[in-house]
Amino acid sequence: QVQLVESGGGLGQPGGSLRLSCRASGSIFRVYDVGWYRQAPGKQRELVATITRDGNTNYADSVKGRFTISRDIAKGTVSLQMNSLKPEDTAVYYCNGDVTSTLTMRRQNYWGQGTQVTVSS
To answer: How many C-beta atoms surround the C-beta of residue 7 within 10 A?
Structure first.
């Protein structure tokens, strides 16, 4: 069984920083593209950033220059460094990725359970 587990959310101050991590757990054969998404109250879930297995990245315009996505292939983790936080960054952040498990040897898409990020003074 495969799970994506997020950590690192919490309360941040405007202009401050937070770092989120996503770790694939279970019987992992390979982790492919991974992305961070967020959903604010009353709004649709939106893409924040993605990273391919080769390390190519893509960012939403709203976070370019402030957020950085990175990954450690060996550890099976993907991180989101969030700097210069704004109140509008407040949302539940979800990790999403394509993973092949050793049990099925099929590439499937998974979502994490989400972690709350609140930006407030």
So the answer is: 15
What CA–CA distance (Å, rounded) separates 119 from 37? 16
25: left (phi over 0), alpha (psi -120 to 50) or beta: beta
Per-residue pLDDT of the chain (121 residues; tens, 9 = 90+): 899 999 999 999 999 999 999 999 999 999 999 999 999 999 999 999 999 999 999 999 999 999 999 999 888 899 999 999 999 999 999 999 999 999 999 999 999 999 999 999 9
Spatial strand order in the sheet of 77-82: 2-7, 18-26, 77-82, 67-72
17: how many CB neighbours lie within 10 A of its CB? 12
Q: By the 8 A CB rule, do 113 and 37 touch?
A: no
Strand stretches in the chain, DSSP E: 2-7, 10-12, 18-26, 28-39, 46-51, 57-59, 67-72, 77-82, 91-101, 107-111, 115-119
